[in-house]
Design goal:
The chain is of the alpha+beta class and 250 residues long. 17% of the residues lie in helices and 39% in strands.
Length: 250
């Protein structure tokens, strides 16, 4: 799957979830059997809040056929009004089902950010509040502070914290572009982790403010663009414990 016209890879699991939710969406109320364009305003359907159109290729042609077009309108309690473009009725569906649908292209991007082995890592650099700490990886569960870095480290804890970073995936994408960094707390002095690979490549994660479900917002550069996402809460607990710079290194 590809997200167009932005032309970036779509997340297969997200696409499948969208199709499953649309296919299984149930009507909870037959609101009105026959509506006219004048009625649409009453249900927020004159200018739909959200529109989904599913198409299929037309046999023997480069054009597509519309399978179904759904307009989602106003919300009332736990329901959302919806209509099909090929019908004259208005229905109501559950609000939580509609809220699960992506509303922007950024939400559809492939969530796997990068994927490599911890054995490919040469060095980890931590930047926080103007301070820098570098930790060298000499082998499996074997880390040491680089010259000029102070304190004590726990080899096992660092290894187990870095391993999932090597296979980093976004919990959910939330924004695209440098202009949103401040909005999500991604300032110059916020925590930054840079994984330097043996081939000289570097992968940097910038950490920001609190997100949903006890996680945080984070940013990465992908295909020369800055992307902001929800960093998994479970992984951030390891990051905050073992991959930060102590205020007073021992």
């Amino acid at each position: 799957w590809q997200v167009m016209p932005q032309n970036f890879p779509a997340d297969t699991a997200v696409v499948q979830s969208v199709l499953t939710n649309l296919a299984g969406m149930q009507i909870v109320e037959f609101t009105k059997d026959v509506v006219t364009p004048i009625d649409y305003t009453n249900y927020g359907l004159a200018t739909p809040v959200l529109k989904y159109t599913l198409k299929t290729p037309r046999p023997g042609s480069s054009t597509n056929i519309v399978l179904v077009e759904l307009d989602f309108g106003a919300t009332e309690n736990d329901r959302v009004f919806v209509r099909r473009a090929d019908e004259t009725s208005v229905y109501a569906v559950r609000k939580n089902v509609v809220e699960s649908l992506p509303v922007a292209p950024v939400q559809m991007r492939e969530r796997q950010i990068w994927n490599f082995s911890e054995n490919d890592i040469n060095q980890l650099t931590i930047r926080q509040q103007g301070k820098v700490r570098q930790i060298l990886r000499k082998g499996p569960h074997n880390w040491s502070l680089a010259a000029g870095s102070q304190g004590m480290i726990n080899d096992l804890a660092i290894e187990e914290s870095v391993r999932p970073l090597c296979r980093l995936a976004a919990g959910a994408w939330v924004a695209r572009g440098e202009q949103d960094r401040e909005r999500y707390g991604l300032g110059e002095n916020s925590l930054q982790l840079t994984l330097e690979l043996k081939n000289g490549e570097k992968r940097t994660v910038y950490f920001g403010g609190a997100a949903r479900n006890e996680g945080v917002y984070a940013g990465v550069t992908v295909d020369n663009e800055f992307w902001i996402f929800e960093f998994p809460a479970s992984l951030f607990r390891f990051v905050s414990l073992y991959l930060t710079i102590p205020a007073n290194p021992i």
